Amino acid sequence: MSDPVADAAARLRAAGIDSPRLDARLLWEFAQRRPDIFERLVARRTAREPLAYIVGTREFWSLDFAVGPGCLIPRPETETLIEVLIRLVPDRATPLSILDLGTGSGCLLIAALKEYPAAHGVGIDSSPDALAWAARNVAAHDVEDRASLIQTGWIEEASPGFDIVLSNPPYIPSADIAQLEPEVRNHEPLTALDGGPDGLDAYRAIASRISGLLRPSGRALLELGIGQAEAVRGILIGRNLQVMGITPDLAGISRVIIALGNKKAA
Description:
Layout: H1 4-14, H2 20-30, H3 35-46, H4 51-55, E1 57-60, E2 63-66, H5 79-88, E3 97-101, H6 107-115, E4 120-125, H7 128-140, E5 147-151, E6 162-167, H8 182-185, H9 201-207, H10 210-213, E7 214-223, H11 229-238, E8 241-248, E9 254-263
Parallel strand pairs: 3-4, 3-6, 4-5, 6-7
Antiparallel strand pairs: 1-2, 7-9, 8-9
């Protein structure tokens, strides 16, 4: 008798999936070991649909987030933003006011609110599809009384007075989009990926408003793409903002840059 998971793993491997055995096992469990459902799920994964879209969830910061078409899938490296936040604000009772620019699934905002029970936050996104997923996650994690979601562009309608700005902006250069894995380029929202010709358009927009968004003692934590640290530092300094530091992720890649809300030469 053939092993359905082993057979599916072989098909996924042939389709170019990096983790065929793991994906096959997760799909088998998700299908509740029903071969009829399992076959349809494997066909979707073989066509390079993201696993997270197929099973409908992705873990982030040990929390489960609902995701699907129109929503950027949370990445492990983005957890570095929460790690940096906790290091900067070790007192979990602090009543922070948090702004999440480009909230997507809401993973950053919700993870921060779970870590800081007295905090309140706002997540903004230009995509109604992404905000629908964020709203679902806000409800699932029981932070509806502390989280507001607003559909708007990057910073057009964000009010001032936040202690913390978090953002995982689009930072992939436009010309590089075609080289991404099919799961990303064919399924995840382009607006959450494309950072313009040099990948830095969103940083320029954010830098132009950081001082107006944050309280004088506030800080902005921005995720960085590979090799972008010095360019983003230059953008922030060009706006007379003080850069507190740059933190690597677990792979040693410079991943989070920290800027102060008050204008100073750096």
